Amino acid sequence: MPEQTATVYQPDPSDETHMRRALELAAKGKGRTSPNPAVGCVIVRDGRVIGEGYHERAGEPHAEINAIEDARGDIQGATLYVSLEPCCFHGRTPPCTDTIIRHRPRRVVVAMHDPNPRVCGEGIFALRQAGIRVDVGVLEEEARRLNEAFVKFMTRGLPFVIAKCGMSLDGKIATRTGDSRWVTGEASRRLVHELRNEVDAILVGSRTVMMDDPSLTTRLDERDVKDPIRVIVDADQYLDTDRRVFQLKSGAPTWVAVPDDRSFEGADEVLRIPSGKGGLDLTLLMKELSARDIVSVLIEGGGSTLASAFESSIIDKVMFFVAPKIIGGQHAITAVEGEGAARMADVIRLERMTARPVGEDILIEAYVMQTIPGEKGD
User: Fold this and answer.
1) Which of 109, 118, 139, 179 lies 20 to 30 A from 81 at CA?
2) What is the C-alpha separation between 258 and 256, in angstroms, rounded?
3) How many helices (H) and strands (E) does the chain have?
């Protein structure tokens, strides 16, 4: 990051209000901008909003450009609020900093630095060099949460992985006969479809596909709905093509991950991944997905796949929907199978846990606690 002398930030009471609106606008682009971040922008002059915009799709104009156009190009002397540092390099679109400088706002308020090494600090430096005041850090935590997948993708070169499951109060995701429809209620299932609408890919094991025959598509009432890329992990030749995921009319493909000495007829693409402990090497699979610009992955199970994912330390966040039901039975399928930890010292620890009602269920969200590099969880 270039050295720079920043002006002393004098917070304006309205800064958070306008930045919160910029974040609301940014959220509209979630699921559409990948591998770019979701960004929103609000332009204010004399206390009045004169322009708004957000990054709608990858390859299309960025939030700042859309907001400036909404203000009909007249932003001289205004304050521009943007949820992420403006870009300063030529990609699929020209640098936003050039356009901002040309239109001469008085001030730019940025929620957070862009973690992209090609930008990080450079965009802010360019604006300040041009004589524009820049203040950074308004609602930074909220901005980072909105783009948590992009942050990981830029800083670690890997997708952000969410582990989702719907389970009974006693931790079961199906009965002893494999019946799982429906563990959770309608409101929870709708929220899962909203998640599918936002992520790049959804990942399940072949056992889930063979037992439940899911479509793994996004089913919502809204008009602008997208399906995630479907990734099926088939380590043991359990899968066949007589399943719904191979018969879909969908805008998203179905990929099948298999050991590197095998193939699979019927998939849109086959990902050959070396074997690891308990199946395919999921860390290498994540690297393969990252190379294909997959920024976010939603793992929907089943229990064996979630166990492998936790053991591989690829999961960043958990979203467990807990239903007010008791299934019981030692042979009923649990949310996370596998061998599990032998000692409490070895368990996977979570942090920043929250719980909220979703219809009749409770959604528990938490992040996997990061450990020292080289240790389990890194």
Assistant:
1) 118
2) 6
3) 10, 16
**61 upstream amide cis, omega within 30 of 0:** no
| Residue 63 DSSP SS3 | helix
Catalytic positions, written as ranges:
64
Q: Judging by DSSP bridges, how do beta strands 317-323 and 160-168 pair with one another?
A: parallel
- H/E stretch holding 65 reads helix 63-70
| Distance (Å, whole) CA 323 – CA 189 | 12
Q: From CA 120, how far away is CA 156, in angstroms rounded?
A: 15
Using one digit for the tens of pLDDT, what is the confidence trace for 100-157?
999 999 999 999 999 998 888 899 999 999 999 999 999 999 999 999 999 999 999 9
**Residue 55, Cβ density class (10 Å: 0-12 exposed, 13-18 middle, ≥19 buried):** buried
pTM beyond cutoff 0.70: yes
Helix (H, G, I), strand (E, B) or coil at 269: strand
Neighbours of 221 (CB within 10 A): 7
Digit-coded pLDDT (tens) for 59-115: 899 999 999 999 999 999 999 999 999 998 877 778 899 999 999 999 999 999 999
